[in-house]
Amino acid sequence: MAAKKTSGVFTTTIYGTLLNVLLNFILIPKFHLFGASVASMLSYLVVWIVRAHDVEKLIQTKYDWRNLIINHFIILLQIVVLFYMQGIFMAIFETILVLIIFAENIEIVQVLIGSIRRN
Known about the structure:
- This protein is an all-alpha fold and 119 residues long.
- Helix content is 86%, strand content 0%.
- It contains five helices and no strands.
């Protein structure tokens, strides 16, 4: 049933691409590489939201919206740190942000580690 619903993937990919190009035209002149990064992140987020909504029509799913919002916010912070900090301060802040992502997703990390140990 779900295997025959590939037109939605094509449509969301086209819309995501168009949104990315539009956001790049708006953000790159003012924010340069930082604008391109934010444009890509927002485009992927919109595509994911639309696809998640489409999947919910086919099967019942449950999303941890708090976790998703926190993770996207941390990714945005990582983009800011990468573009506006240098040297040891950048490395320290990036390490802290990665550790926060691991802590926020500890259940997933534990499952992955368990899976690796079994193989």
